[in-house]
Every structure is written in C-alpha cells, then in structure tokens.
C-alpha cells in the first residue's frame, strides 16, 4: 500500500476500535447482536416516565452513573470505548498515548435536579441570584459536582487517563459530532502534525429534560410498545427517532507510523466531506444540497468515483424528514446505481446516540468491511414507495464491500460523511 494518497497526503489508517451501545460493551458483543438484528431499545427504568409521550430509549443501563448526570455517564462510556481502542492498537506505553485527543461530547448543562439542589444550597429563600449560585458551586461537595458540568471536563479527564499529547479538543456539532472528531484526527495526520490521534465520541444524555425537548420538536417516536419495534428507518410508518446512549473510539495513525511499529491495520479512513447549510434549527435544506455536497466532497477527497462505493451506513434516524432527505441525497449522488447500492441504518437497533453516533457508526462501518457482512435495517415491514433504496431489510447480508460511506447529518445542517475502505493487498 502506498504511504501517500492520491493528493500526496499521508494515508490515515485505523489500528484500534472501541464501542459501547445499548446492545452491550465492546466490538464482539455489539457486532454479533447487530448482524442478528437484535434491538437494544427498551422501556426507560432509570427515572419515572409518567406523563411523557416517549417512554423508551437505547439506554446503557449496565454502566453505573449518577441519575440525570449526562457528563458523568458520557465520560464513563468514553473511557470504556477508548480503552478498548487503545488496547487493541497496542500503541504507546500505558498512559502515554503518542498523539492528541479529539472528543465529541453533548452540550453540557446542569439538569434540573442538580439546579434545584444547588439553588437550595445557595439560600436566599428561593430567590438565589447567579452570584449566589456560583458561590455555592465553589464550596463543599458542590465543587466537584460543578467541575463535572464543565464542557471540557470529559476531554480533560480522558487526556489525563490516556496521557494524550497537547491540549485535548472538545467539540459539539450536533448529530455529526462523532464524525467531526474523526475528521479532525484525519486532518491532523494528513497535515503531518502528528503520527497518531485518539478520536472519541460519547453521549449519555437520556434524561427527562432531553426527552421533553426533543418531544417538543416533534422529533421523537411515540411508538412505545413494543420498544424494540419503535425505530423504523426508511419505513412508510416511521414517526421519529429513539434517543440512545453510547460511545465510539478510533485510534488513527499514518500508514507509515503503523507499519513501522508492526501494527495491524483494521481499515483506512479514505475521505472526509463536511458541509453546513444553516437553513433551519432542525430541518435540512429542501433541495438536499448540503447532504449531496457532503457525500460528493467525501468521495472526491478519497480520490474515488461514485462507482467505487459498495455500501452506505445511513444516518437513517427514522424521522419522516431525515430519511426522505437522505434518500434524495443518495439518489442524486449515486444516480442510476442508487437502487443497487445497499444502505442500512444501525439506528434501527441501537437508537440514535446523538453526539456519539458518527463514531459509533464509523466503528460499525469498519466492522462491516472487516466481516464483509452488512447489518440490516430492522423493523422494515412497510416499505415507503417514496424511498426506492435497498435498505437491507430485516436480515443481514453477505456482500463484497471495498469502499463504504458513513453519513452523519446533524440538526442545524451540520453534515459529515466519511469514506472508509480496506487496506489494499
């Protein structure tokens, strides 16, 4: 394999992967359940759901964290995924990762239970000012709690745990965040600034407030029973996405660096495309230009033609709007091949892991390449005639896959597409 790509840049390879979802912890458990068409979506038991329109989610209940503390759960999920990736890569001495850290995390704020507790500690007979709250947050047991609710706290703690180099980068680009973290790592290696990068994305945001907010946007499904049948990407009867938790991590290296240390190459990140439209806070532009441009950029960045693409890991949220627009984009980009190229949605099984989705699905795309087996889109019982795509309905499929797209389209028109491929013989 060439050390440089067609544009003369270092080739970026993957040497370690880690993943945690509602299906379980680690690549082995996730992959076996994914290709079996299993769902990790279940009734929420972590907090009361009385009065909520949506009472299901892809929660990660096997990881302990303080109730309603998204930063704490996000950090623990990130640690699990990153640890699996770093161990598989076998890179550096323990606690001395030889490169920077890029972390995608959800927007961080104090949830209502902690706000009320802090307000009570601030006193002022229920009329606490912002200054009163700051003073209370800096004292006693609230000091550690306040530190947890800093946007960069997850990245800072991960950097200390894994000994990454330089200041860690935290980012949040809505549902494209995980793919953005990978793109930053790819670009740093391509510029020759680093030989390796640890790219992590995590989200533990399933709580009452998040459910209410997404529900007010009419984005969530209300098909609560049975939970495992709620996510129906590309189906005519789809009615919204299912919130979920999870984390994904990749160890990226230049091909030259990986080969020099005898690392096993798991795949190649061949291209990245990024495009935003700022059309609407939740909807994408009706002409599909941002989605179309994003995929075309990624394919061109990889030095490939559309005829080279064998599979698409869809954003596939199961909302009426997103699935329709993704179909429009895929059809415009692939042309006559659109109906022949398989496209499936992992979210039908794990739900929408929000900030983590781009990294979680990048791991699944690499596993698809490694196993030459495409996970299905489950719950596809009523096809949508307006979406004439091969969505790999309900049952996994063996297929020859050399180059694959992984789409991540976020609220606010933030879009990233990754192209991943196998190491050429």
Automatic annotation (TrEMBL):
Gene Ontology cellular component terms for the protein in this record: cytosol
GO biological process annotation, one example: fatty acid biosynthetic process
Pathway: Lipid metabolism; fatty acid biosynthesis
Keyword Transferase (UniProt): yes
A Pfam entry, by short name: ketoacyl-synt
Annotated CDD domains: KAS_I_II (cd00834)
Keywords of the record: Transferase
GO molecular function, one term: 3-oxoacyl-[acyl-carrier-protein] synthase activity
InterPro entries recorded: Beta-ketoacyl_synthase, Ketoacyl_synth_AS, Ketoacyl_synth_C, Ketoacyl_synth_N, PKS_Beta-ketoAc_synthase_dom, Thiolase-like
Domain Ketosynthase family 3 (KS3), first and last residues per copy: 9-422
PROSITE patterns, alphabetized: KS3_1 (PS00606), KS3_2 (PS52004)
Family: Belongs to the thiolase-like superfamily. Beta-ketoacyl-ACP synthases family.
Protein name: 3-oxoacyl-[acyl-carrier-protein] synthase 2
Gene behind the chain: fabF_1
